[in-house]
Amino acid sequence: MNIKSNIISPMAISLFLTLMVYLLPGSALNTVFANEASAQLCKPGQAFNKRRLAGGQVDNICEQYAGKVMLIVNTASKCAFTDQYEGLESLYKRYRDQGLVVVGFPSNDFGSQEPGTEQQIRDFCVNTYAVKFPMYEKTRVSGKNADPIYQALVTTSGSKPRWNFHKYLVDRQGNVVESYSSMTKPLSKKLTRKIESLLDDQRAGLDL
Length: 208
What we know:
The chain contains six helices and seven strands; from the N terminus they run αβββαβαβααββα.
């Protein structure tokens, strides 16, 4: 009997769990559009204070990235989608000078796939994927104890994270414009085209 053939790798388990999540009723494989009437994440005076990953600096997310297009992502180091870090960093490098910022929130909520300390997470991101986009403290992103910024993201978008690497796209005015499932790759055409349109809208406004 070949014992090795009966051992299921953690990555295979992760992929199986991911597929099961998206096969559940009500799962959203496609883009979810925010309700324009209530899509404002960054309201006047709104404070979402978050500490930098394995650091002491605390940022008010809305103030820190005011006027920028934000792609907010809940991340994990031991997930079938972990290699999306590479695409997220490429996306950040491609568009950051035009006003895009990728904002990462490591979370252990799904499949316990972010079990490490913040320093371990930071080292993994930097050493494995050369991540330079801003990463923040380990964060609860689902359920009744979700962090306030994620409660607001769910409320404004009508879409909650169902797994790691769920993505929210926020325009320069602080409105959640779209939400993308984990299945959407960072460099997919539907995501990059939407980002470009939001960046172009700002440039068009400045030309008037």
